[in-house]
Design a protein that fits this description.
It contains 9 helices and 8 strands. The chain is α/β, with parallel strands linked by helices. The protein has a single domain (2-199), classed as Rossmann fold. The structure holds 2'-deoxycytidine-5'-monophosphate (DC). 2'-deoxycytidine-5'-monophosphate is lined by residues 9, 31-32, 35-36, 96-97, 100, 126-128, 177, 181.
């Protein structure tokens, strides 16, 4: 069974997808983490973010693995190295949308996502899961929230990682990524026609997870 959860940054996808996967005993696949891992590798190897051919070549030669980490967290391996924390750095967030808009990079990631999802019952979370990666998913959800709420959530999340950023910077970054993610040519962020739309602005996390679980089990 495949459950697709899409939506913009800060809509609550990661937390909800992770908890839903745990409740159902499904594999949790954070597809944004994959684009972040590729971006990290590019930065570490001084690959120019505008050099599409170099980025595609690099993505093809990259090994990305996701496994369950401690206390329901996710461990992300980039070429066998644990990069779970590094990929959350603001320097990665700043460039990840530019890397994720490259068609050839997406093709490599989508291949990997389909492989992971076809091996086990899975909850996949991202921007194009219900539209492109698994258009035949058993259940599709599109999570959204008001911009101010999404900014607040991201800000608090970064504070947890003790990242030194202001709320204004988080808002700027979010607005920039919303724009790139939803206007890019290849697989832009958009709700699949058959996805269930949920505005999570005034909902508690558990409420959202309960709602999704009910939909999946019915
Ligand atoms: O969910 P996130 O913030 O970790 O995602 C990082 C970036 O990756 C986001 O700006 C858009 C991109 N992304 C994508 O294009 N397609 C996906 N399926 C998942 C993420």
């Amino acid at each position: 069974m495949i459950i697709a959860i899409d939506g913009p940054a800060g809509a609550g996808k990661s937390t909800v997808a992770k908890r839903l996967a745990r409740r159902l005993g499904f594999l949790y696949v954070d597809t944004g983490a994959m684009y972040r891992a590729v971006t990290l590798k590019a930065i570490e190897n001084s690959v120019n973010i505008e050099d599409e051919a170099a980025l595609i070549k690099m993505a093809k030669e990259t090994n990305i693995d996701l496994t369950d980490g401690p206390e329901g967290s996710l461990t992300v391996f980039l070429d066998e190295r644990d990069v779970s924390l590094d990929i959350r750095e603001p320097r990665i967030t700043k460039f990840v949308s530019d890397v994720a808009k490259i068609k050839g990079v997406r093709e490599v990631m989508v291949g990997l996502q389909r492989k992971l999802g076809s091996q086990k019952d899975s909850v996949l979370e991202g921007r194009d899961i219900g539209t492109v990666v698994f258009p035949e998913a058993d259940k599709k959800f599109f999570l959204d929230a008001r911009f101010e709420e999404r900014t607040q959530r991201r800000y608090k999340e970064l504070a947890q990682y003790k990242k030194d950023v202001t709320e204004g910077e988080v808002a700027q970054d979010l607005s920039n990524r919303d724009n790139i993610d939803s206007t890019r040519k290849c697989s832009p962020l958009k709700k699949a026609e058959d996805a269930i739309y949920i505005d999570t602005t005034d909902m508690a996390i558990e409420e959202v997870v309960d709602r999704l679980e009910r939909e999946v089990r019915c």
